[in-house]
Amino acid sequence: MTSQGDKPTPAREERWTPDLLVLRERMPREAWGTLPQGSLPGTWIAMHDSLRSGQDMLERLATHWQLKLIDAAAFRERALPLLQQHLGHLHGHHRLEDTHYFPQFRSIEPQLAKGFDALEGDHGALHGDIDALEDLARRLATQDMQSPEANGLIQQLAQALHRFGPSLRQHLLDEEDLVIPLLAIAQNHAPPNDAA
Ligand SMILES: [Fe+2]
Ligand SMILES: [Fe+2]
C-alpha cells in the first residue's frame, strides 16, 4: 500500500493551533508508515489515498481534454463513470464522519472538538462544489456532443475539477493531522507518552 504516511510531509501552511496538535506531537506524520495496514488509522489513510487517487485521475482527464489529447466524446465516456464513483465515495465518507466518527472523536478527545467542528464545516463547503460538479455531470450526460455547447460544458467541468482538487486535498491532510494520531493512540499504535 502506498500511504500518505510513507511520504514526506508536504510543505504547507499549518491550519491548526498548537492546542489541536498535541496528539500529532506524540504521533507525527513521519511515524505513520509504521501503522498496521488493517488498523483503523491505517485504513483511514488508505481511504483518503483512494480519494486522492480518484481526484488525480479526474484532473488528469480534464488536463488531457484541455490539451486536446482526447476529444469531447472520449472525455465524457471516461470521466462520467469515474466522477459518479468519486462523488458517491465522497458522499458516503463524509456522511460516516459527520454522523458516526466525529461525534465519537469529540467525546474521546473533547479538546479537539473545535477541530472537528471546522472539519464538518469543510464538508459543507466541499459539498457546495460537489453539487456543482454533479449538476455539470448531469448536463453533460444528456448533451449532444456535436452541439456548439458541448465544448463549453466540458471546459466548465474541467475547470471545476481543477478548482475542487486543492480544497479536497487540503481537507484530507488537515483531517489526518487530528484523526490519525487520535486513532493511533486510542488503539495503542503510538509510542508511549513520556510525559505521562
Ligand atoms: Fe472529512
Ligand atoms: Fe476523511
Biggest beta-sheet profile? none
Got a strand count?
0
Strand-residue proportion = under 5%
Under the CATH scheme, which class?
A: Mainly Alpha
Number of domains: 1
Q: Give the helix level as a range of percent.
A: 55-70%
Could you state the oligomeric state of the chains shown? Answer: single chain
**Which runs of at least 5 residues are low in confidence (pLDDT < 50)?**
1-6
Give the SSE order as H and E letters: HHHHH
How do you describe this structure in short?
The chain is an all-alpha fold and 196 residues long. It has 5 helices and no strands.
Describe the structure.
- This protein is an all-alpha fold and 196 residues long.
- The chain has a single domain, classed as Four Helix Bundle (Hemerythrin (Met), subunit A), CATH 1.20.120.
- The chain has five helices and no strands.
- It is elongated and about 65 Å long.
- It starts with 21 loop residues before the first helix and ends in a 10-residue tail after the last helix.
- One fe (ii) ion (FE2) is lined by residues 94, 97, 119, 123, 171, 175.
